[in-house]
Write a structure and sequence with these properties.
The chain is an all-beta fold and about 70 residues long. It contains no helices and six strands. The chain has one domain. The strands form three sheets. The chain has a two-stranded antiparallel sheet with strand order 1-2. A two-stranded antiparallel sheet has the order 3-4. The protein starts with a strand and ends with a strand.
Length: about 70
């Protein structure tokens, strides 16, 4: 998801930045199986978890000469 920031005072450049995403995915799956002839048993357990709680985006403003400075957006 893009967002914008002013690079300098009015009339200057505009910067389009990606917004930090707070994303969570939880999955849970259980399967069981049985067959009598021939005898067959099966069990499957799957668990997945993804988290992205990124709250800050650091970038260097290209309109400044200070290459070591990072700005939090």
């Amino acid at each position: 998801m893009p967002s914008a920031a002013a690079g300098t005072s009015p009339g200057g450049i505009a910067i389009e930045l990606p917004s930090p995403i707070d994303y969570i995915t939880d999955k849970f799956k259980v399967e069981a199986g049985y067959a009598k002839n021939p005898l067959s048993l099966s069990f499957v357990y799957l668990y997945s978890r993804f988290q992205n709680d990124n709250s800050n985006l650091l970038f260097r403003n290209p309109a400044t000469n200070n290459t070591a400075a990072a700005t939090t957006f």
